[in-house]
Specification:
Keywords: NADP, Oxidoreductase. This protein is an alpha/beta fold. It has one domain: TIM Barrel (Alpha-Beta Barrel), CATH 3.20.20. It has 11 helices and 10 strands. β5 (about 80-85), α3 (about 95-105) and β6 (about 110-115) form a beta-alpha-beta unit. About 45% of the residues are buried.
Length: about 325
């Protein structure tokens, strides 16, 4: 898979995914209207891969941006690659289609290009995104993720999504699906936290061996939302080594962090609601890191996770344990 000169990668189902995507998650304190404005800017800049999710609760605003840019002739529907995600409260097989159809209704679209299982942990079904008991602890549900996958396969057959994949899965969970009796479609991708401090080299190697694309979120560090990220977490973009390499190439540390992923064969998501940074994040196709640069950045790995997910201590410990197995 050569991403150095191509702006799209062919997935194992034959569909094309742009190698650079625009992330739409925002902390609660940011007005939902900002997602609309930023998505429009991203499309004008050149982004065609838009990454969103039911959990983000801003698909109406993002969908309006997509429709506006189609209406003004900037893009056609087939130019766009839109990703949504099935949230943890919809992992029972009979609820998967319902979650996807809710997203489609909010978006005002007939189909998405990619639908993925957001996390490999099921929560109690219902309207609460994070259902909790009287003690404030997350209420889990017991679901066989292979049954969830089968329901997602049916959504693909119905034309509600062109491709299907997973997120936050380790290699053992991927193997559960890959080895499922009667498997109809392999996961096309696995979206995980991935950046120079957490380069996921083993998981990347595993995914490549199975023709599954690794997609990196939090590739620039994190938005530092206090509900998700520790206040004492390191600032990736202040990393001296990234700054040194960026200066050598007359680039920003963020551009170097994104370019690093592309040259590893990783599809990378860049998230920002700042117009200047959105433009900068797209300017990663006209320079190349040297083999020495790549080796030095590889050396920054410390298996550090920004995204701990605010699920309360019992689920958080489970989730961290599951994620740690992917390193």
């Amino acid at each position: 898979m050569d991403l150095n000169h191509n702006r799209s990668v062919k997935l194992n189902d034959g569909n094309l995914m742009p190698v650079l995507g625009f992330g739409t998650f925002a902390p609660d304190e940011i007005p939902k209207s900002k997602a609309n404005e930023a998505t429009k800017i991203a499309i004008d800049v050149g982004f065609r891969h838009i990454d969103a999710a039911y959990l983000y609760q801003n698909e109406e605003e993002v969908g309006q941006a997509l429709r506006d840019k189609m209406a003004d002739g900037t893009v056609k529907r087939e130019d766009l690659f839109y990703t949504t995600k099935i949230w943890a409260t919809f992992l029972r097989p009979e609820l998967v289609r319902q979650c996807l159809e809710r997203s489609l209704k909010k978006l005002g679209l007939d189909y998405v290009d990619l639908c993925i299982i957001h996390v490999p942990i099921a929560m109690k079904p219902g309207e609460e995104l994070l259902p909790k008991d009287a003690k404030g602890e997350i209420i889990l549900d017991v679901v066989d993720i292979r049954d969830t996958w089968e329901a997602l396969e049916k959504c693909k057959d119905l034309g509600l999504t062109k491709s299907i994949g997973v997120s936050n899965f380790n290699h053992k969970q991927l193997e559960m699906i890959l080895n499922k009796p009667g498997l109809k479609y392999k996961p096309t991708c696995n979206q995980v936290e991935c950046h120079p401090y957490l380069n996921q080299s083993k998981l990347l190697e595993f995914c490549k061996s199975r023709d599954i694309v690794l997609v990196a979120y939090s590739a620039l560090g994190s938005s530092r939302d206090p509900t998700w990220v520790s206040s004492d977490s390191p600032y990736l973009l202040e990393e001296p080594i990234l700054k040194t390499i960026a200066k050598k190439h007359n680039r920003t540390p963020g551009q170097v962090a994104l370019r690093y992923q592309l040259q590893r064969g990783v599809v990378v998501l860049a998230k920002s609601f700042n117009e200047k940074r959105i433009k900068e994040n797209f300017e990663v196709f006209d320079f190349e890191l040297t083999a020495e640069d790549m080796k030095v950045i590889d050396g920054l790995n410390r298996n550090y996770r920004y995204d701990s997910m605010p699920f309360g201590s019992p689920l958080l410990s489970i989730f961290r344990r599951i994620l740690s197995m992917s390193c």
